[in-house]
Amino acid sequence: MRTLRFLLQKEFRQILRSRSLLISIVLGPIIQLTLLPLAANFEVKKIAVAVVDHDHSSYSEKLIAKIYASPYFTGGRYRESYKDAAKLVEQNKADIVLEIPQNFEDNLVRDGNAEIFIAVNAINGTKAGVGSGYLANIIADYNQDIRLQWSQPGHFSEASAIDLVNENWYNPFMNYFLYMVPGLMVSLLTGIGAFSASLNIVKEKEIGTIEQINVTPIKKSTFILGKLIPYWVLSMFVFTIGMLISRFAYSIVPVGNISLLYGFLSVYLLTLLGAGLLISTYSDTQQQAVSLAFFFVLVFNMISGVFTPIDSMPGWGKVLSYISPMSHFASVMRMVVLKGSTFIDILPHFIAIVILGVIFNTWAILNYRKTT
Amino acid sequence: MDNNIAIKADKLTKRFGDFVAVDAITFDVKQGEIFGFVGANGAGKTTAMRILCGLSTPTSGTATVAGFDVYKDAEKIKKNIGYMSQKFSLYEDLTVMENITFYAGIYGLSDKDIKDRGAELLDRLGIAHEAKTFVGSLPLGWKQKLAFSVAVIHRPKIVFLDEPTGGVDPVTRRQFWDLIYEASDRGITVFVTTHYMDEAEYCGRVSVMVDGRIDAFDTPANLKKKFSVDSMNKVFYELARGAKRKAD
User: Fold this and answer.
1) Is A175 a residue whose pLDDT tops 60?
2) Which of A215, A370, A372 best probes binding to B when mutated, by most B CB atoms within 10 angstroms?
3) Which residues in chain A are contacts of B76 at CB distance < 8 A?
4) Residue B10's beta-bridge partner residues?
5) Chain A residues contacting B, CB < 8 Å?
6) CA diameter of chain B
7) What's the pLDDT at B80?
8) DSSP count for chain A of H helices, then E strands
9) Helix or strand or coil: residue B185?
10) Which domain holds residue A87?
11) A10 and A124 fall within a common domain
12) From A157, A213, A308, B84, which residue has the greatest number of CB atoms within 10 Å?
């Protein structure tokens, strides 16, 4: 225990003296948390629709007016031919081309059935998907209007009698920040933890001080603990800053218990830092450690569920996501912040990171050899 | 075991795959002796020393250090030795006193001992006024002397020095050897590798390693007599001429 005291004293002195480290692990997250949520926004607005109207009828006018009335679409791009409209897409001035054929109104009135053509620029997948979805909604709505107009009083209305109403639970106003800020905090903490821990032991290998440590009677587990605790404390501090930013900059107040979040985080960090130290024991240079940590952090992020839903991943993706500690923290963070989940709800995640933590840390201690 | 023997090696061997880094070396070091371990680059000096310090496990042969077996009691050996590696091993982003406190602390010295011995150490080196200077900004000669003093702060039975005076000017090397003599006077056994032959002259006994083997092992005076030459430099040259390994 006394040995640990001296190790910790040394580590803290070194951390607090390293300006670049402090900037990247304290100031970095503050800046990222204030800027990133504004940039990493999936909301789609300002979809440019180019219209080619071959019909010039009152029905076609009505449809176009209805589309442009929506806040999602910007209009004013009329073209005489599909070829001209497609050119707008090529120049990136339009996202969707809507072509209304000749006799649109005639067909609609006579047959009760008309076709229109939509071409979507799929380079920006999200915009294309969401945009064409919105457009389909508007056209369906337009259909409904016409049918209502035509159905005679007394007749059985052809209009659908079922009206679907959506209600968004846990985030009724679809507040984007409420969803994204906790996720980004998970992502940032994971990055900071993995990088700082993986660089640590390998730095001593590189400058040669590890040899000196290895000839002392210091215990391996004490040494690893001495490396782990400082970054644990630092990450808790960064998390607190993050919580304050999300409270005051984004007005996010966790529905659940904050101490539950801290409790989970304290175990999560042991797991994550253990993984970082494991990387460190396998690397001989800081460069190797950074490359390895970068690889894992990137994979952790992609399968974490922060940016894409885990439910829509293929089976192997779900397995990967289950053995990645970050996914568990991301789930718990959102569960507690948005739903107010309790300890019983997050228990499966808790068990998973405890198991992962034991594996990573034991592995790191075993693999850190004082002798060759 | 013989109480006067600090280190004893018998047919000690270390292989890395097909490469025999240390080839069945046998020698002993007496307590309080300054023992020189001489050899060209790549002769196997550092590997042999790392085995004795418990940093590396031998492939075969036996060795005891301070009475402890290198296979079974590596951690007990570590309590009884000091070590100064080829690479500078103090923390450059810590001050002189912080480095002393750290190393003394992990060897289990009490707070009072740390303070007293720290002050004594700074006094002996004449750098009391630099206690709060970052080690990184000290001149190389001072760093080496400080590293040696820190390596013996816990008063080990044996201190291992791996080419401690590399890149240091002759005056500072002389001062460094004064420190080694002082430590030896206090009863600490000194095991030192070097390829400066003038330093080999300072040692009580010298072993010359060539291609992983010990080709000569005696006092400098006897070695010079045996090869009928007037300096250790020439002794070394006679022996190293036949070396097959290229320096790395």
Assistant:
1) yes
2) A215
3) 217
4) B62
5) 2-3, 5-7, 9-10, 13-14, 17-18, 207-209, 211-218, 370-372
6) 54
7) 93
8) 15, 4
9) helix
10) 47-150
11) no
12) B84
- CA dist A341 and A260 (Å) reads 9
Q: Which residues of B touch A212 (CB under 8 A)?
A: 83, 85, 89-90, 103
CATH number, position A140: 3.40.1710.10
- CA–CA distance from A201 to each of A8, A165, A208, A264, B88 (Å)? 14, 56, 11, 26, 17
Do A230 and A329 fall into the same domain?
A: yes
Has residue A157 been placed in a domain?
Answer: no
Q: In terms of Cα–Cα distance, which of A272, A252, A274 is closest to A327? A: A272
Whether residue A178 sits in one domain with residue A31: yes
Does the pLDDT value for residue A1 go beyond 80? no
Contact status, residue B193 vs residue B37, Cβ threshold 8 Å: yes
Instruction: For residue A185, give the H/E element and its range.
Output: helix A176-207
- Does B111 contact chain A (CB < 8 Å)? no
Phi-psi region of B128 (alpha: psi -120 to 50; beta: other; left: phi over 0): alpha
Model confidence, pTM: 0.78
Q: In chain B, whose CA is at the least distance from the CA of A10?
A: B102
* pLDDT string in tens for chain B (248-residue length): 456 889 999 999 999 988 999 999 999 999 999 999 988 888 888 899 999 998 889 999 999 999 999 999 988 999 999 999 888 889 999 999 999 999 999 999 999 999 999 999 999 999 999 999 999 999 988 999 999 999 999 999 999 999 898 888 889 899 999 999 999 999 999 999 988 888 888 899 999 888 888 888 899 999 889 888 888 888 888 887 777 765 54
H/E stretch holding B215 reads strand B213-218
**Residue A241 belongs to some domain of the structure:** yes
Q: Angle B102-B104-B105 (CA atoms, 0-180°, nearest 5)?
A: 60
- End-to-end C-alpha distance for chain B, whole angstroms: 38
Q: How many CB atoms lie within 10 A of CB B99?
A: 24
Decide: B41 and B197 in contact? Cβ < 8 Å: no
Q: Which residue has the higher pLDDT, A115 or A264?
A: A264
A348 contacts: CB under 8 Å, gap ≥ 6: none
- Other Cβ atoms less than 10 A from the Cβ of A123: the count is 10
User: What token pair was written down for B95?
Assistant: 């001050």
A141 and A73 housed in the same domain: yes
Q: Are both A134 and A196 inside the same structural domain?
A: no
**B189, B158, B136, A284: which is closest to B147 by C-alpha?**
B136
Written as one string, the DSSP assignment of A117-163 is EEEE--SSHHHHHHHHHHHHHHHHHHHHHHHHHHSPTTSPP-S----
Considering only CB atoms, which chain A residues are within 8 Å of B89? 208-209, 211-212
The answer to whether A317 touches A231, Cβ cutoff 8 Å, is: no
Co-location of A20 and A72 in the same domain: no
